[in-house]
Amino acid sequence: MHCSAFVNHKRVYRIYRAEGLAVRTKERKKLRVGARQQKPQVTAPNIRWSLDFMADQLAFGQQFRVLNVVDYCPRECLVMHIGTSITGHDVVRRLEQAG
């Protein structure tokens, strides 16, 4: 076991600084910056869909979720599935019905 898992890093920093020691810090790795590609413009229906989950709560405390699938080009909602528990199988079934 590595002992640093049990020591608070702020305490180590404070003790090192009190003793006049240099505190080594890890430098963050820079993320690779590549050329971003623009998304192609949507010119017809069924080219790009957006999928989103929303959650809310009823007045008496019951929680529910809403699955929304929106087609970008005509800006219409293809699927709006409401349930207290939406599983992965539910999502697949609704997407197959919409497609």
Sequence-ordered SSE layout with sheet pairings:
Blueprint (H helix, E strand, L loop, with lengths): L8 H10 L30 E9 L5 E9 L4 E8 L4 H11 L1
Antiparallel strand pairs: 1-2, 2-3
As a percent range, the share of strand residues is 25-35%
Order of helices and strands: HEEEH
Number of strands: 3
Ends distance: 52 Å
List the total number of helices: 2
Strand order of the largest sheet: 1-2-3
What fraction, in percent, of the residue positions are helical?
A: 10-25%
Q: What would the average pLDDT be, to the nearest integer?
A: 86
Radius of gyration: 25 Å
Shape designation: elongated
Structural class of the helix and strand makeup?
A: alpha+beta
Poorly predicted sequence stretches spanning 5 or more consecutive residues: none
Biggest pleated-sheet summary = 3 strands, antiparallel
